[in-house]
Specification:
The complex is a heterodimer of chains A (about 200) and B (about 325).
Chain A (H helix, E strand, L loop, with lengths): L3 H9 L3 H20 L4 H18 L9 H19 L8 H4 L9 H6 L4 H21 L2 H11 L5 H8 L3 H18 L1 H5 L8
Helix pairs in contact in A: 1-2, 2-3, 3-4, 4-9, 8-10, 9-10
Chain B lengths: L2 H12 L5 H13 L1 H24 L5 H17 L11 H16 L31 H4 L4 H6 L5 H13 L8 H4 L1 H13 L22 H12 L10 H6 L5 H8 L10 H13 L3 H14 L6 H17 L5
The chains are: A mainly alpha (about 200), B mainly alpha (about 325).
């Protein structure tokens, strides 16, 4: 399999199939990255714009830079600009799910009582919602580091490059993000002590 | 190990980014402290929950998105203009254009009898004229080559009438004929044709590439006259002597040739599309703008209209990016 960088060089020379392959490889992780920050409609626009920036900048692409880091940096910057443009609106609807409803069944109860496939999917959905609200509650700098690491699977060094901070700073943001999420997701993992690795 | 050091290394440990020595030291610290082991486990549990949640949130992007991206890429790749200095444009044509423009603005002109003011003179009682094409873009009116058309001799009134009759016989005369438009408008068109006769033969020293006759109204006026008289703009061939004197067509003359009014392209869009694409390929942006606008006006329902619109945008952007003087 050709590396991203080789594909990008091929595209620089006019090979449109190389671009199609790059889109196929990165479309899904980018989509999931963008969706953690914005609604589907905006995510569509931002995803298209990200790849259009690649097209426009193809001539100046240097293979010394990792394509993936470059691509995700473009997406991250577009996302930041988009968020700034919506400064008076909340990017995510925090009030939908971030406040835990004391009357709602705790996730622990659902998890412990579920064994059917449908129920498990329902639990997974609820877990997803809990995570979404936990992510939304994170400060943006921490959230982007967390999402880049966990969704895009970028090493900390590349995240540091993408966000323009030192690696130590990025790790520190990750630690704060995890500590905050630990509180947000407390009900969940407290419910499954047997699964905790020793 | 201090609390701060421990917390700093916790993330590295979770993501296996400690080197061997650091890892050994960290694990020794864990072995000696129940509290730190508990903290590590809590972090691991958080990560595990978060990953489960993320997998639940995992989505496929909309299927249509990839097609849209690839379509956009194709469109931009086909018509994306490169900077003028990188696509090998020689400076000479640009200098010639600049000189011609300067001449057009500054040169003394022969006595000019302007044609009637169509805009402020609606024919009393006459029905409205049919829709006319949008005015030419400003930039294209100032381009080299447009003046060539403006200076083209207009056929005499009798010739035009004869031409109309001939076309009428063939059934080619369009619905917007003189009778539909009313006599007043037709009369003005006739006046126009006559008044332009003063420009039929430009002074010999104007040169083939000058914009000197732009004062006559240029391509737009010519098209207006054509609209009103239903007579195609005359494009007489140069006299043999003139052809001999100018063995090679100037760039401006070539542009004028290519800027031939779109209605010459017949009723089907294909010929016009081909012409527009040729303009794009040759980086004749203004002509491309004209051609695509014409296409969109005449064939707005065509299935390729969206693409034409996109290419019109590209051509317009490219046109605005090309400096007249390097």
């Amino acid at each position: 399999m050709q590396s991203d960088e080789a594909l990008m060089l091929a595209y620089q020379k006019g090979d449109a199939r190389a671009f199609a392959e790059l889109v196929a490889r990165h479309e899904k992780p980018l989509w999931n990255f963008l969706r953690r920050f914005t609604d589907p409609t905006s995510a569509e626009d931002l995803l298209q714009e990200t790849f259009m920036r690649v097209v426009k900048s193809a001539a100046s692409y240097q293979p010394s830079a990792r394509f993936r880091t470059w691509l995700y940096t473009i997406a991250r910057n577009l996302c930041t600009d988009h968020a700034r443009g919506q400064v008076h609106r909340k990017a995510r609807s925090l009030d939908q799910t971030s406040q835990r409803d004391s009357d709602a069944p705790r996730l622990v109860e659902t998890v412990s009582g579920s064994d059917a496939g449908g129920e498990q999917r329902a639990v997974a959905r609820e877990l997803g919602q809990r995570l979404e609200s936990a992510l939304a509650a994170l400060p943006e700098l921490q959230r982007e580091v967390f999402v880049m690491r966990e969704v895009l699977d970028l090493p900390f060094a590349e995240i540091a490059h993408a966000v323009g901070a030192s690696e130590a700073t990025v790790k520190s943001r990750m630690r704060y993000a995890l500590e905050r999420m630990r509180l947000e997701l407390a009900g969940l993992h407290d419910a499954r002590p047997a699964e905790v690795e020793s | 190990m201090s609390e701060e050091q421990f917390r700093e290394q916790l993330v590295d440990y979770l993501y296996d980014e400690l080197d061997q020595a650091q890892r050994a030291a960290f694990e020794a610290e864990l072995a000696s402290s129940t509290e730190r082991r508990a903290e590590l486990e809590a972090m691991r549990a958080t990560l595990r929950s978060a990953r489960t949640g993320l997998s639940a949130l995992d989505e496929e992007p909309p299927a249509r998105l990839r097609g849209a991206i690839l379509d956009a890429e194709r469109a931009s790749h086909v018509v994306r203009p490169r900077a003028w200095y990188r696509r090998g444009i020689t400076v000479a044509p640009l200098l010639a254009a600049a000189a011609a423009l300067t001449f057009a603005v500054l040169a003394p002109r022969p006595e000019h009898q302007p044609g009637p003011d169509y805009a402020s003179e609606p024919a009393p009682g006459a029905p409205l004229a049919p829709a006319v094409p949008e005015p030419m873009p400003e930039a294209s009116r100032d381009e080299p080559g447009v003046g060539e058309l403006a200076r083209a001799p207009v056929e005499s009134k009798s010739k035009l009438e004869a031409s109309d009759k001939a076309r009428e016989k063939k059934g080619e005369l369009r619905a917007r004929s003189a009778s539909r438009r009313g006599p007043a408008l037709q009369e003005r068109a006739d006046d126009r044709a006559v008044s332009n006769e003063g420009f039929a033969q430009p002074p010999a020293d104007w040169g083939s590439g000058s914009l000197g006759a732009a004062g006559g109204g240029g391509l737009r006026d010519q098209r207006e006259a054509e609209e009103r008289s239903d007579v195609p703009a005359s494009r007489p061939a140069p006299a043999p002597a003139a052809r001999a004197a100018a063995p090679k067509k100037s760039a401006a003359a070539e542009s004028a040739e290519l800027a031939k009014p779109a209605r010459d392209a017949g009723s089907a869009p294909d010929e016009l599309v081909q012409r527009a694409q040729e303009h794009m390929a040759a980086h004749r942006w203004s002509q491309a703008v004209i051609a695509y606008r014409e296409l969109l006006q005449r064939f707005p329902k065509d299935e390729r209209a969206a693409r034409w619109r996109s290419e019109l945008g590209e051509a317009a952007r490219a046109l605005s990016a090309v400096p007249l003087v390097p």
